[in-house]
Design brief:
Length: 328
């Protein structure tokens, strides 16, 4: 099968930063390993050992840029006009109420799919060979947060609050320090000696930090469609403590972490949980890897190649299923 993977968000390969880019890079590598021909159509790139990489021009009709020999197009955003080739679209974000959702949309978690009346989803997976190997035997002496701290819904403040309540130091990775508009809310954490801001970190520093962390604190106050920070932390041997919003309850099993919307409940869990770094690591490697993800996408490719849409009716926003739980 000849597969074209289309993304407009960043360069390929992406093995330092990037979320969607990491996922689709792993998808391409796994497709190639399974015997398929892969082409990336992206804004920029440095070439690939296993794939043809073509430049995407977002100002032009996508149909004019799809090579004739392609069998199926894997979109990572909704195209502006109908495609002439068989295709599917991975929905990486949360569509807004009233947004048109294509019949061939694939969601990235069961929760995300159900919030739009769908059962079609494929969990993200990563190529763990692109990551440094974590040391699972280190003494773990602090907690961590991983996410864009400038996004209020990621709730880095809540993570710092929970760590301070629990009496544990926390290292916060992802983006810059608090923005000025949020400084009044976070001033107590800016000066707290237990809260350490690491900013943007590359893979080596990220894994080094997480290899000595007991757990990811992830009290998001939005519906996280998937949560790469969760599986990266598990890979490094960290447990995960978070809210019940979005995909968290299906990614954080009782063996690797706890979900709760009560700060006190998460604090209690941090103290009482039976930590097992090897179990966390094995859960990430066996469940959320690019080969598992790719085989599920291949089943969907075969369906659209037969002209069968992935949904009989277009998914739509279901308001009652999109209620967000705030951290108490």
């Amino acid at each position: 099968m000849k597969v074209l993977i289309v993304d407009r968000s960043g360069k390929i390969p992406a093995t330092t930063y990037g979320g969607t880019e990491r996922v689709i890079w792993g998808l391409g590598k796994a497709l190639h390993a399974l015997g398929h021909e892969v082409t990336f159509l992206v804004p920029g790139g440095s070439g690939g050992r296993f794939a043809r990489i073509l430049p995407l021009d977002v100002s032009k009709d996508l149909n004019e840029q799809v090579p004739d020999d392609i069998d199926v197009v894997h979109m990572n955003y909704r195209p502006d006009r109908p495609l002439h080739k068989p295709y599917l679209i991975t929905m990486h974000g949360n569509p807004s109420p009233g947004e048109i959702i294509d019949l061939n949309t694939v969601f990235i978690s069961r929760n995300q799919a159900q919030r739009y009346g769908s059962e079609v989803f494929v969990h993200n997976g990563l190529d763990w060979s692109d990551y440094p190997k974590p040391n699972l035997d280190h003494e773990r002496t602090y907690l961590h947060f991983l996410g864009k701290v400038s996004w209020k819904v990621k709730n880095a403040f809540g993570a710092a609050k929970i760590a301070v309540m629990a009496g544990w130091p926390i290292k916060i990775m992802g983006g810059e320090r608090w923005t000025f508009r949020n400084i009044n809310r976070g001033i107590r954490y800016l000066v707290n000696p237990k809260v350490h801001f690491k900013g943007m970190v590359d893979d080596c520093e990220k894994i080094a930090i997480m290899s000595r962390s007991k757990a990811l604190i992830f009290p998001v106050e939005w519906h996280e469609p998937f949560g790469l920070a969760i599986i990266e932390s598990l890979y490094a041997g960290c447990s995960v403590f978070g809210t019940t919003n979005g995909s968290l309850p299906e990614l954080i099993t009782p063996e690797v972490g706890v979900v709760s919307n009560a700060s006190e409940g998460l604090v209690a869990a941090i103290h009482a949980f039976q930590y097992d770094p090897k179990k966390c690591h094995e859960h990430a490697v066996s469940t959320f890897n690019s080969e598992v993800m790719t085989k599920k996408y291949l089943d969907l490719y075969k369906k659209v190649l037969l002209g069968i849409p992935l949904h009989e009716v277009a998914p739509v926003y279901i308001s009652e299923k999109n209620t967000i739980q705030k951290l108490a």
